[in-house]
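Hi U.,

Before I forget, here's the chain from the pilot set. I'm dumping it here mostly so it's searchable later in email.
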Amino acid sequence: MAQETRAVVIHAPHDLRVDRVAVPDLGAGDIAVKIQRGGICGSDLHYYHEGGFGTVRLKEPMVLGHEISGTVSAIGTAVKAVKIGDRVAVNPSLPCGVCRYCAAGVQNQCLDMRFYGSAMRFPHVHGGFREMIVCTEAQAVPCGQETSHEIAAFAEPLAVCLHAVRRAGPLAGKRVLVTGCGPIGALTILAARHAGAREIVATDVAASAVVMAEKIGADRGLNVGENADALALYSENKGYFDVAFEASGNASALRGAIAVVQPRGRIVQIGVAGDVTVPLNVLVAKEIELLGTFRFHEEFAWAVELLASGKIDVRALLSAIFTLDQAMAAFDLASDRSKAMKVQLAFN
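Structure:
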């Protein structure tokens, strides 16, 4: 009889269950990981509330989760890089390695990507919110026995932000704006500061997010929900900021960033939404570069290193930890931006 494990499975909007799912057989290059912590991401919440996002829709029940860490419990016969008992952060990204983008070194654009907890392809790729997962050796990045599972589970969202920061180019001595201070915006603040940003201003529509932004190192937090014109003073003389990271996915935030980024500055769009309109005349006249950023590749291992060394400290962002059996309560709290930044599930 095949081995089974408990997992958090989304069946339909607000139909979240703890089901038993099969554990795949261990291949020669595979490892088994007892998952200890899993962070609830914005995409998980979209599946929970809406059954997907954009054109991506659930077509079958799917295990959620891609921010995971755990302990290696078994290894295949060809595994060399990890051993039983190692604490690891699990990279949810599994590019094919053979398509033209993988061959060119831009694996995050893989044409046959298998990313945990994603309904982009069918059958869906099940996620990591389960007590046991089998993954490839390359996906398991040791974080050291002194690194807590809570901290290690931040590797995936931090990798997203590290990739965004790399897209922006060198930040040493630069003035930086971050719009939208949910978990990704907050981690972008930490990543930008680590990259040498001289000044960081952060905006959000939620008071609690603005307070958190300043707590983790933003020089100034502005509540644009209470004062829509809070950024206006930065638009004088064609703008103030060298770089802006737009993490909210809100069209008005992008337009606001265009107004306050100085000529030949850069805007990195992290947050996603539907189609938006932008003032192209301003974008063109100020010669602003508008850049996309999508997931990560080599930044995952870098994120693990920065977390394990304490060079980036994410402890303030962890709001609460729930058990597997409390999954629905965890998702409900994670949905309330006034009460939570990052909520994690505890397994095993």
